């Protein structure tokens, strides 16, 4: 309908469809992926016909998949892969092979060629990370042992898309235009492109980002992140490989970089938008007429595929010594096909390996399986009401540690690692606490590395950086930056986005402390207050005052200061003070002076007499500490 209309109209329609459909589907518990698919179906050729050619959308949206694989590559740190090697390369690989074998066999028995059956089966084997992770998060199981086993399988499945795309390219029908020699030349070019990309990523990118970080130009870092992703994709395309493989390789090479989370934060807005556009393009490609014509075969195929995959998941779980309830839960959660099936089927159709109507049926089957998954999980929980709702292994570990007199290290995120942050972290280091540092200064990043902390380069005021650094899972967040405005913005953002995370902040002065309290900080400390209290206490000690009296005086001063702070919170910074002819706030003695101030030389006398003398219960005019 809008084929000859403005491109701006099409852009508005796409955005409006996504904005309406995605929140609605998430509210219904069906997830954002199904929302994007439904939005695409509604405005595509089978719906309102606003877009007559879905491929024009998919061509652009393919960059969303490219960026998605780059982000996955960033998560593939060799150290993390090694720590989860048994779950990933044992449990995960076995599940992919068993389920892939079962579904491929079923496809061959249904009359498909082995190549088509293999592609269809492997697409269905790759579970929906979005749906599974959402359900784990809803039940609080992501960080439990059974949740981590599921996450490990998802990780292997996400990793599998790279070799699967290469296999699709290898299985693509030969047009007869190339001989054996030219094929070997193509293989050589592809290998050379891959080796060159690895070398550039390993030896040039980190120095490049280090130089750019010193410029402190946020937009340049964002442009550099896009350059890395798109440049790697282009290099692989020139080498005859998929763009997604290039982006993935670049991500893996940068996975141990201190700039990893900043790169992820810079790419995330583009990735989310373009990946959503990709799913909408898939929804536009759905042929409802074809689905209606083959609805019985489609429905039977979906049910058979879900049963076979669930059976394979359950079998592997039991072989790996999972208990019956956990194996059933894993089978229900992972019964569907996932987002990467659309990527694999699109690549296979583009390579001529599967026909368009087969692609449409396979895509529809995956979408239906995703829609059925919440129902399957609901039925399982209804049938097994007495099964424990959560994996209690984590609680048991805490109890056992407490009985043994051990401390359970927490997870603390620290924003700012200057002198204040370094001193604060010394106590955390002494107790073996897991600490994550967010810093923009590369020298401070290196210092954090010497402490053995996790160090992430990024701007702590940016919500995407906070999310990428794991703030949502933090037990405590420390704001140690020396910028008052930045500290206030961080506190407000964190308390709005992560209200359950306790926030401790460094305050510059009294006014800043009040500002932080109003923004929801859980605890603040004026940076000079406690050091000055200790300083004054030592002075009393040198004057012969007893330790008990020093402690009593200090406690009284702290109490009076807290009371004054409460009054100022209610009535303003000058609450309780007489009017003062000064544009600055005044420091106020918390104990009434026994005598007025006295000048000991002419300069002091001139200073005292230059303005109206303060009242007895006021101190000379000074900035408020």
UniProtKB/TrEMBL annotation:
Pfam families: Na_H_Exchanger (PF00999), TrkA_N (PF02254). It is a multi-pass membrane protein. Gene3D superfamilies: 1.20.1530.20, NAD(P)-binding Rossmann-like Domain. The keyword Transmembrane applies. Keywords: Antiport, Ion transport, Membrane, Potassium, Potassium transport, Transmembrane, Transmembrane helix, Transport. Its main location: membrane. One of its GO terms (biological process) is proton transmembrane transport. Belongs to the monovalent cation:proton antiporter 2 (CPA2) transporter (TC 2.A.37) family. NCBIfam families: 2a37 (TIGR00932). This is Potassium transporter. It comes from Xylophilus rhododendri.
């Amino acid at each position: 309908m809008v084929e000859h209309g403005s491109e701006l109209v099409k852009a508005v329609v796409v955005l409006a469809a996504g904005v309406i459909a995605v929140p609605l589907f998430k509210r219904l518990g069906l997830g954002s992926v199904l929302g994007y698919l439904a939005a695409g179906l509604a405005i595509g050729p089978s719906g309102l016909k606003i877009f007559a050619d879905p491929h024009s959308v998919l061509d652009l949206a393919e960059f969303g998949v490219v960026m998605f694989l780059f982000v996955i590559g960033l998560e593939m740190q060799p150290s993390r892969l090694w720590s989860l090697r048994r779950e990933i390369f044992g449990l995960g690989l076995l599940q992919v092979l068993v389920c892939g074998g079962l579904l491929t066999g079923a496809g061959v028995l249904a009359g498909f060629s082995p190549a088509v059956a293999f592609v269809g089966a492997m697409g269905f084997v790759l579970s929906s990370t979005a749906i599974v992770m959402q359900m784990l998060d809803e039940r609080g199981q992501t960080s439990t042992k059974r949740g981590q086993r599921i996450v490990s399988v998802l990780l292997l499945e996400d990793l599998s898309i790279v070799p699967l795309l290469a296999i699709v390219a290898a299985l693509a029908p030969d047009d007869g235009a190339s001989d054996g020699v030219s094929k070997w030349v193509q293989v050589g070019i592809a290998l050379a492109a891959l080796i060159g990309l690895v070398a550039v990523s390993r030896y040039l990118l980190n120095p490049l980002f280090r130089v750019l970080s010193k410029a402190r130009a946020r937009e340049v870092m964002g442009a550099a992140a896009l350059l890395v992703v798109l440049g790697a994709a282009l290099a692989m395309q020139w080498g005859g490989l998929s763009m997604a493989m290039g982006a993935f390789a670049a991500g893996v090479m940068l996975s141990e970089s201190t700039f990893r989370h900043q790169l992820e934060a810079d790419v995330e807005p583009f990735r989310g938008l373009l990946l959503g556009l990709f799913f909408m393009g898939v929804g536009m490609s759905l042929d409802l007429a074809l689905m209606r014509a083959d609805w019985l075969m489609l429905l039977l195929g979906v049910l058979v595929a879900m049963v076979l995959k669930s059976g394979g998941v359950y079998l592997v779980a039991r072989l790996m010594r999972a208990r019956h309830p956990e194996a059933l839960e894993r089978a229900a959660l992972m019964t569907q096909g996932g987002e990467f099936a659309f990527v694999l089927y699109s690549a296979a159709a583009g390579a001529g390996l599967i026909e368009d109507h087969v692609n449409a049926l396979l895509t529809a089957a995956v979408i239906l399986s995703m829609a059925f998954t919440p129902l399957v999980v609901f039925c399982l929980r209804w049938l097994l009401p007495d099964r424990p709702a959560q994996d209690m292994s984590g609680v048991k570990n805490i109890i056992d540690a407490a009985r043994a007199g051990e401390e359970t290290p927490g997870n603390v995120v620290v924003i700012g690692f200057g002198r204040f942050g370094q001193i604060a972290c010394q106590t955390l280091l002494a107790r073996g606490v897991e600490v994550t540092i967010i810093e923009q200064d590369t020298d401070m990043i290196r210092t954090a590395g010497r402490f053995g902390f996790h160090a992430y380069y990024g701007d702590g005021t940016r919500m995407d950086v906070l999310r990428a650094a794991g703030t949502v899972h933090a037990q405590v967040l420390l704001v140690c930056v020396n910028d008052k405005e930045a500290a206030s913005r961080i506190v407000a953002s964190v308390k709005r986005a992560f209200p359950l995370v306790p926030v401790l902040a460094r305050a510059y002065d009294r006014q800043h402390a009040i500002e932080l309290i109003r923004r929801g900080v859980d605890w603040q400390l004026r940076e000079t207050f406690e050091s000055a209290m200790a300083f004054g206490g030592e002075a009393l000690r040198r004057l012969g005052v007893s330790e008990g009296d020093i402690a009593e005086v200090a406690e009284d001063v702290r109490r009076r200061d807290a009371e004054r702070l409460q009054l100022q919170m209610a009535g303003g910074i000058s609450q309780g003070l007489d009017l003062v002819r000064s544009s600055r706030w005044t420091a106020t003695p918390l104990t009434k002076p026994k005598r007025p101030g006295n000048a000991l030389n002419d300069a002091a006398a001139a200073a005292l007499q230059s303005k109206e003398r303060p009242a007895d219960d006021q101190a000379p005019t000074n900035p408020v500490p």
